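Reply to dn_fold:

You asked what the input looked like. This is it:
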Amino acid sequence: MTKLKVIFIILLIVVVAFSAGLFAYLSGIGAVDSDDTEDVTVTIPQGSGASAIVAILDDAGLVKNTTFAKINARIGGYNSLQANTYVFNKSMTLPEMMEAINKGDFDYISKTAFRVAEGYRLTQSAEALAEVTPYTKEEVLAKWDDKAYVKELIGKYWFLTDDVLDEDVMHPLEGYLFPDTYYIMDTEPTIESITELALDRMDAVLTERKSQIEQSDFSIHEFLTLASIVTKEGCATEEDAAHIAGVFINRLNDDMSLGSDVTVCYIFDEDRVDLKVSQLESDSPYNARKVKGMIPGPICAVPEIAIDGVLNHADTKDMFFYAGPDGTIYYAETNEEHEKNVADHPWTEEDLEEARD
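and this is what came back:
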C-alpha cells in the first residue's frame, strides 16, 4: 500500500468519525420527541449557570442526551441567562430552549393573565385577580382598601391624592386601575406588584394628558369620577362619550344632580337597568339621582375613550340623555323632550330580561 493511500484512508476515517460524532452531537441536542407539544414548565432560579440549567431541563425530561447537552451549554455562548419560569415542550431542541433562556424570550415566559375590564368595579377586578393567583377576593380587596397601603401609593403616583381617603369613598383605588390585560410573570406575585402594573399603566395614560386635565375645572379625582360615570352610561363611540360628558358638565354647572342611575347600581355592587324604588331612594352619597354635584369618587375602571370624552366634551345645550333598548342614545335640551324620548323608545319586559342576561 502506497503512502498516499494510507493518508487517504486515515483522512477518510477522520472524516467518517467526525461526521458520525457531529451527527451524534446534533441528534443529542435535538428534540426529545418532535411530535410532543405538551407544555412543560421549568423554573430557572436566579444565578443559575448553563450546566445547572441543563440539569433542570434534564429533570423535566427536555434533554435527549445529557453529555452533548452539557457540551452545548459550554460552547453555545449563553452569556446572559435570565431567571424566570419558562414554558417549553419536548419538540424543542436544546439550543432553542437555551437561547430562549439566554434572551428571556417573552414568548416562552410563563404568564398569568389578569384582566381589568372596561367598566369593572373594583370588586369585579378583585374577583378576576383571585381567579389567577393564590389570593382570595377578600384578601385582594382588604389590601386595596388598606389606607396605610394606599398612603404609600399616594406618595408614589401623582394622580393619587388624599381625596381617595375621604370617609365617603367606598374603595380608595376604585377607578384608578387602568382597564387592560396584565401579564404576571413572577413565580410568587404579590398583590402589591400586580396592583402597580395597573397603576403604572394609568400613570402613562394620565401623564400624557396631564396638562389638559390640569386646565380643566376638575381635580384629578373629580375628573376620574366623571369619566367613570360616562363609562357606565355607555360610551361605545367617541362621539357619545363626549356628548354624555357635555350633558353632565351642563348639569354640574347648573347645580343639578347628575341624575345617573349607574351610580345607584354602584351602591349595590350590581349592573341592572330596572332598579328598585327602594334602591333609587338610597341615601348613599353615591346616589347621583338625589345628591347635587359630584359623588365621592369613581365607580369603575375608566378607559381612554371616557377620559378623552371628558377632556373633549361636547359643547352642547342638552341637559338630558336616554339610552334606548337598542343602545341608541337620545339627547334632549328640556325635560319635556327627554320624556318624549323615553315614551317613544320604551324598554319592554323582553328588553329588560335580555339586559339582565
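The longest strand covers residues 40-44.
Hope that clears it up.
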